[in-house]
Amino acid sequence: GEQIEVQVLKVEAETKRISLGMKQLLPNPWDVVEENYPVGSVIEGKIKNITDFGIFIGIEEGIDGLIHVSDLSWTERIKHPSEKYSKGETIQAVVLKIDKENERFSLGVKQLEPDPWQAAANNYPSGTIVEGKITNVTDFGVFVQLEEGIEGLVHVSEISREKIKTPVGMFTVGEPLKAMIINVSADDRKIGLSVKALQEKEESGGAAVEEYAQRQSSGPSTFGDLLKAAASGETKSDNGEGEGK
User: Fold this and answer.
1) What is the DSSP string of 23-90?
2) Over the stretch 193-210, which tens digit does the pLDDT of each residue have?
3) Do the domains at 38-112 and 116-231 have one common CATH topology?
4) How far apart (Å, rounded) are the C-alpha atoms in residues 164 and 193?
5) Nearest alpha-carbon partner for 192 in 200, 181, 177
6) Residue 71, C-beta contacts closer than 8 angstroms, at least 6 positions apart
7) Dist CA 37 CA 58 (whole Å)
8) CB-based contact 211:229 (threshold 8 Å)
């Protein structure tokens, strides 16, 4: 016997049906969503649903936000969000984008922390000697973890002066490996390492190898080219003037 207020949505005379709605009498929360949750702000909510492509967070009545799987971590390769999160769990996220027209609310977890790759160029300049742990060995090279979320690759051509078909069997996952940084690309999230250049530096004192690392970071070159140039007097002297034609 309770009385309620509703809004008439549609009248179908032929079928004698009237469609009614209650939510239409309430303010639409999407009308003020941008004011309440500006881009860049941090929100907290419970996980309502987990799918292959992301996590849905309850923000308020009538508004859910989506954290796409690609916005869960800067460095981890997460195949399915359920690997890390559970339904009903409360988490924090950053507001990335709001589309009022299509009622879409985009969130990100990884944006709570700075991207470690943005500091990679400063932390690992070309010519730096580093030591890390081997995480994977493939036919084309050896992957080395330098810090949490940052890996470098020793290409098969940078392992030794001798030609190597594959490093598989030469290295073991988990063991430490020392190498020289020869190039860094934060945009591509890649760090090039060289064991060969490190060995040459230790044997020769490092001048030609330092130059090799610098050229590797700026353009194509080979270590053999540098040694030939040094032998023919085409490298620059300490005062910066060329000693040969």
Assistant:
1) GGGSPPGGGSHHHHS-TT-EEEEEEEEE-SSEEEEEEETTEEEEEEGGGS-SS---S-GGGT--TT-E
2) 999 999 988 887 655 555
3) yes
4) 16
5) 181
6) 54, 96, 106, 107, 108, 109, 110, 111
7) 13
8) no
Place of tokens 């490092």: 206
User: Residues 19-39: what's their mean pLDDT?
Assistant: 78
% helix, strand, coil for the chain, step of 5: 25, 35, 40
* Topology of domain 38-112, CATH: OB fold (Dihydrolipoamide Acetyltransferase, E2P) (2.40.50)
Whole-structure pTM over 0.85, yes or no? no
> What's the CATH number of domain 116-231, 2.40.50.140, 3.30.70.330, 2.40.160.180, 1.20.1560.10?
2.40.50.140
Residue 234: pLDDT band by 50, 70, 90 thresholds? very low
Instruction: Yes or no: say if 198 and 182 are a contact pair by the CB < 8 Å rule.
Output: no
pLDDT tens column, 211-230: 655 555 554 444 444 444 44
Pairwise CA distance, residues 148 & 233, whole Å: 43
How do residues 34-76 score in pLDDT, each as one tens digit? 889 999 999 999 999 999 999 999 999 889 999 999 999 998 8
Banded pLDDT at 13 (limits 50, 70, 90): confident
Q: Taking the domains of the chain in order of start, what are their residue ranges?
A: 38-112, 116-231
Read off the pLDDT of each residue in 86-101 and give the average, rounded to a whole number.
95
